[in-house]
Amino acid sequence: MENWFLTKQIDEKTFVISEPKHWEETNCYLLIGNKKALLIDTGLGVSDISSEINKITDKPTIAVPTHVHWDHIGGLRNFPEFYVHELEREWINGNFPLPNAFVYKMLVKDNNLTELIKLDNYAVFQGKPSGILKDEDIIDLGNRKIRVFHTPGHSPGHMCFFEEETGYLFTGDLIYKGTLFANYESTDPEKYLESVQKIAKLYELAMKNGAPVIGMFDSAGAVVYDGAAALAAYGRFMKCVSDASGVIPQIAYVAGKCIGTAATIASMFDVVVKNEKAELY
User: Fold this and answer.
1) Residue 37 and residue 57: Cα distance in Å, rounded?
2) What is the largest CA-CA distance in the chain?
3) What is the dihedral of CA 172, 178, 181, 182, to 10 degrees?
């Protein structure tokens, strides 16, 4: 599909590639090192995201989904080298826990994709990963190192990715736009709380070494189902932002609509940077 992706540059070697025409608006992040590039999440697979990557860099690209859900793994088929978390190895190998009909319904919700994708021809991507990731692994791109944090809750093998040198933290669906899906058998609100507390420790690390914290905001907050723990997690995260205020620089980059809880957190940062299409209210 033409013009499916929207690409924005964050810095010289970091880009966000989004799918604004779909209701889930998946954001995929391209990080370029001296030897390799890393694509965090690959979108729905409706259009070939590797063609967008090729416009930006000719370095070999490793693709890593934050978790094995349809809106994050769809483009993996275009990358010979991709990794998943060890707890979701079976999901990508043919044992995805949700039926195709349900995923298809989510895929075509609120858009005209039914004209392009038919249920009989659709299947969640399945394949054999090149490698398996676990908590605290390091992905070395050549003069650029990305640390893996296992952050279950939204899914058993959900991961966040942290670059200590820049302060970038890529949170996937730990905090994201719209409804927080926490009512499936594979979700766990209590684990979600533990994961946010784990990520909050990065603030403590930053406060010790004086590193700035840079947050990416493109979110409309969350409606929580069966998730009082998730609300507590948001409160914990907001406390970390408040505690760090005046101690270390906190920079919020707002890339799209940002309302509700996400807007509250972003507005607490010391500096708020918005692009031309950003909304913060």
Assistant:
1) 8
2) 56
3) 90
Q: 228-244 and 189-209 are packed helices; what angle lies between their axes, rounded to 10 degrees?
A: 10
- CB atoms near residue 201 (< 10 Å): 11
Q: What is the 3-state secondary structure (H, E, C) of 135-204?
A: CCCEEECCCCEEEEEECCCCCCCCEEEEECCCCEEECCCCCCCCEECCCCCCCCHHHHHHHHHHHHHHHH
Q: Output helix, strand, coil percentages for the chain, rounded to the nearest 5.
A: 30, 25, 45
CA distance 275 to 254: 7
Burial of 71 (0-12, 13-18, 19+ CB in 10 A): buried
Tell me the residue type at 175. I
**Which two three-digit tokens encode residue 230?**
């998730």
Residue 106 has what pLDDT?
81
Q: Residue with structure tokens 């676990």? A: 134
Amino acid at 23: W
Low-confidence ranges of the chain (pLDDT < 50): 216-228, 231
Location of structure tokens 């409606």: 223
pTM above 0.85, yes or no: no
The number of C-alpha atoms within 13 Å of 27 and in the hemisphere containing its C-beta is 21
Residue 147 CB burial class (10 angstroms; 0-12, 13-18, ≥19): middle
What is the structure's pLDDT at 221?
37
pLDDT of residue 124: 85
